[in-house]
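Journal club side-thread
Mid-discussion, someone asked how the predicted structure for our own chain would compare to the paper's figures. Pasting it here so we can look after the session.
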Amino acid sequence: MIVLDEFVAWAGAGLLAINLAVTVWNIVTSGSKKNGQKIDALEKSLNRTLNDQAAKADERLDKLETRTGSQDKRIALVEQEMRHLPTKDQVSDLRNSITQLEGTIKEIGASLNATAHTVSRIDTYLRKDDSKS
């Protein structure tokens, strides 16, 4: 019986050691389970926040693409109008031509004045001759 009593004592001590080890293990891992749950909750919250931010960014990007499209149309219209406008050289040539025309018109005006004066003198002479006859 001594052997059985010894065996029971050793078995009890072994079971006590195993029970203590399991208790320590549960205490140590219970914190990590809670931390794991907290990490999972934070992960879900972060994913929701990131998805919301991504959706907002997509909306802003769509608005920018719409604005860019309208800007492209406006730029195309301006470019089309610019093709019809004269270049600086053409404007300069036009300015020179107008200046020359102004000079020519002044010369013609002076010539017309001289011609009008001559015609007036001839008219006056002819009228005096008509009154003599």
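Post-session note: Residues 2-84 form the longest helix (83 residues).
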